[in-house]
């Protein structure tokens, strides 16, 4: 587990350097072409990047949670969710309890964000709380906690910013180039061979840099998903929980309303996925869900990272695994947890109804509605703006004081 | 100075760096084992605190299970007394408590009123989760102990461990047979 984190860190540094080099190269050529000074171009590129990185570092998580319209909850709001997060925190050895947020959305999804393990948050949709049983929820939360513990959240945020900077620079440069060529441009007289080469390289870079950066970014984000799945199986000792959760997530294709392209890689499954698309192409942020499920279900021998790795190889017919070799060699054998009786025989109907009630109670409460239970058993939801002091129960006609 | 002297200095410096980093690594692992053990303690204490509540709630509904309830209370008191008496003794007492608890929760099935009570449901979620937390913290503790012990036994870090007095830690073993099949508390 710790070797994995170290291996991640090295790989992350290489990745960030690669993307930064791409950014500087872009700045260099754009500066050379537009400002006649390579240093100026690099300085502008760096300035944009630094500002955006600082914003992402200090405010990234609150921006993301705000965009997702996530609401923070306390232990008493949903004891089961709180307990599950705490269980996974303990299993992963995280020292600080992450903040827990709920997104009022019937779609099934979850994400983790934060700067470091000391300041991290986990957000789940209310649909997820409603549809998943305890083992499944544990698998999903384990996956999110793994993102925090593997230091994925900050890395993905910073890479996202780098990518964003490259895209912005390339976009403006294209516009400026177009504008200057339409307007005749100040370089039509001077120029020469060198000028033309710089222009050509600049154009190629403008087109290629955003694509290349995006491909690096997506490749890394897919790998992170596999690793988070592997860690979740290791924490819970029960890969079937996550597998069955992913199955439910795959079955519901309702997009998360408050997600956007920028925040998509943060979620446990792509919030914009479409049904029936075997998204194994280079342009997806997540590995195909069916494949993730197959790998988890093939972990017959145990729950260690090595078992996940061999399951991965088995599904991919040989080839490279996804887990750093150093992490595999140190882990001993890890046996799987036995299934709880309820999860084998299918969940009792009662549990599902109760869960739905529990979540709807929570959502009403979070929107400042008061709930009064009438003597006849009817639950009355009192909107926050209600002026009158008493409400008549529509079911039995009793008058209830607010 | 001659080249030989420089090489000698270089070798000494490299050795020193290795010794310092190995020592720091050992300290870090030992602290992780300590922290992991503290985590288990927190959860065990939480379980001890929950049990009187649970027994109190169950008493009202279970007229014919005096023995089962007493067994839980006794096991809980014994486990509380075993705190601080070493990893081995403590894990044994906690194992007894776990099996007494699972016997109690098995007979709960016969009392639908108790099972439906809100108070009991909330307690049950807390207790089930605490059991999970105990086993997850034990899992993390044992992983940490494995890594620490490996480091104290393997060459070359075992030399430094031996010199500086790093001793291997004890695993949190599950001693009672029933406990080995994962505590069954969750009936929700």
Brief summary:
Chain A is of the alpha+beta class and 402 residues long.
Structure description:
The complex is a heterodimer of chains A (402) and B (188). In chain A, helix 1 (2-35) packs across helix 2 (38-67) and helix 7 (193-236) packs across helix 8 (239-251). In chain A, a hairpin with a 6-residue loop joins strand 7 (390-392) and strand 8. Chain A has helices spanning 2-35, 38-67, 79-92, 126-131, 134-149, 152-182, 193-236, 239-251, 289-297, 305-315, 325-330, 341-344, 349-366, and strands spanning 70-73, 99-103, 110-116, 119-125, 370-373, 379-382, 390-392, 399-401. Chain A is built from 13 helices and 8 strands. Chain A folds into 2 domains: 2-330, no CATH class; 368-401, no CATH class. Chain A starts with a helix and ends with a strand. In chain A, strands 1-2-4-3 form a 4-stranded mixed sheet, sandwiched between helices. By secondary structure, chain A is of the alpha+beta class. Residues 275-281 and 341-347 of chain A have low confidence and may be disordered. Chain B has 188 residues and is mainly α. Chain B has one domain: LemA-like domain (de novo design (two linked rop proteins), Up-down Bundle), CATH 1.20.1440.20. Helices cover 78% and strands 0% of the residues of chain B. Chain B is built from 6 helices and no strands. Chain B has helices at 3-61, 66-81, 87-108, 112-116, 118-153, 157-164. In chain B, helix 1 (3-61) runs antiparallel to helix 2 (66-81) and helix 1 runs antiparallel to helix 5 (118-153). Chain B is rod-shaped. Mean pLDDT of chain B is 82; it is low at 176-184. Chains A and B meet through helix 3 of A and helix 1 and helix 5 of B.
């Amino acid at each position: 587990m710790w070797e994995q984190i170290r291996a991640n860190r090295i790989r992350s540094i290489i990745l960030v350097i690669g993307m930064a080099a791409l950014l500087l190269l872009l700045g260099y050529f754009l500066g050379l072409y537009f400002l006649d000074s390579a240093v100026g171009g690099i300085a502008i590129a760096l300035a944009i990047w630094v500002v955006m990185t600082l914003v992402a570092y200090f405010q990234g998580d609150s921006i993301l949670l705000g965009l997702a319209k996530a609401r923070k909850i306390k232990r008493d709001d949903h004891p089961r969710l709180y307990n599950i997060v705490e269980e996974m925190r303990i299993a992963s050895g995280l020292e600080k309890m992450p903040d827990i947020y709920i997104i009022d959305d019937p779609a099934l999804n979850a994400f983790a964000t934060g700067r470091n393990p000391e300041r991290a948050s986990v957000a789940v949709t209310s649909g997820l709380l409603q549809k998943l049983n305890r083992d499944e929820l544990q698998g999903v939360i384990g996956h999110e906690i793994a993102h925090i513990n593997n230091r994925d959240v900050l890395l993905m945020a910073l890479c996202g910013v780098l990518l964003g900077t490259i895209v912005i620079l390339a976009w403006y440069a294209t516009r400026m180039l177009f504008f200057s060529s339409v307007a005749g441009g100040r370089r039509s007289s001077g120029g020469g061979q060198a000028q033309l080469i710089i222009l050509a390289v600049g154009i190629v870079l403008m087109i290629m840099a955003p694509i290349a950066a995006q491909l690096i970014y997506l490749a890394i984000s897919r790998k992170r998903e596999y690793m988070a799945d592997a860690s979740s199986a290791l924490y819970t000792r029960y890969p079937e929980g996550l597998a069955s959760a992913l199955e439910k997530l795959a079955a519901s294709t309702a997009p998360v309303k408050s997600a956007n392209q920028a925040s998509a890689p943060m979620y446990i499954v792509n919030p914009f996925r479409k049904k029936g698309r075997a998204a194994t192409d280079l342009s997806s942020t997540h590995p195909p869900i069916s494949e993730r499920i197959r790998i988890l279900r093939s972990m017959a021998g145990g729950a260690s990272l090595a078992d996940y790795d061999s399951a991965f190889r088995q599904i991919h017919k040989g080839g490279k695994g996804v887990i750093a070799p150093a992490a595999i060699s140190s882990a001993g054998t890890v046996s799987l947890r036995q299934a709880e009786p309820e999860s084998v025989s299918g969940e009792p109907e009662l549990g599902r109804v109760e869960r739905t009630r529990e979540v709807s109670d929570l959502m009403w409460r979070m929107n400042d509605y008061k709930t009064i239970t009438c003597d006849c058993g009817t639950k009355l939801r009192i909107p926050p703006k209600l002026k009158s002091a008493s409400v008549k129960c529509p079911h039995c006609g009793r008058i209830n004081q607010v | 100075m001659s080249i030989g002297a420089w090489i000698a200095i270089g070798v000494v410096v490299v050795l020193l760096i290795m010794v310092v980093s190995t020592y720091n690594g050992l300290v870090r692992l030992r602290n992780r084992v300590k922290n992991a053990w503290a985590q288990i303690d927190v959860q065990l204490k939480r379980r001890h605190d929950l049990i009187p509540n649970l027994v109190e709630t169950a008493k009202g509904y279970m007229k014919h299970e005096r023995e089962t309830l007493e067994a839980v209370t006794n096991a809980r008191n014994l486990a509380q007394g075993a705190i601080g008496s070493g990893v081995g003794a403590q894990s044994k007492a906690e194992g007894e408590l776990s099996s007494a608890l699972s016997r109690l929760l098995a007979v709960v099935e016969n009392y639908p009123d108790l099972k439906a009570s809100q108070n009991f449901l909330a307690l049950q979620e807390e207790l089930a989760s605490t059991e999970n937390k105990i086993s997850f913290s034990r899992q993390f503790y044992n992983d940490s102990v494995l890594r620490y012990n490996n480091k104290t036994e393997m060459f070359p870090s075992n030399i430094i461990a031996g010199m500086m007095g790093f001793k291997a830690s004890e695993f949190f073993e599950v001693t009672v047979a029933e406990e080995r099949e994962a505590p069954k508390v969750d009936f929700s």
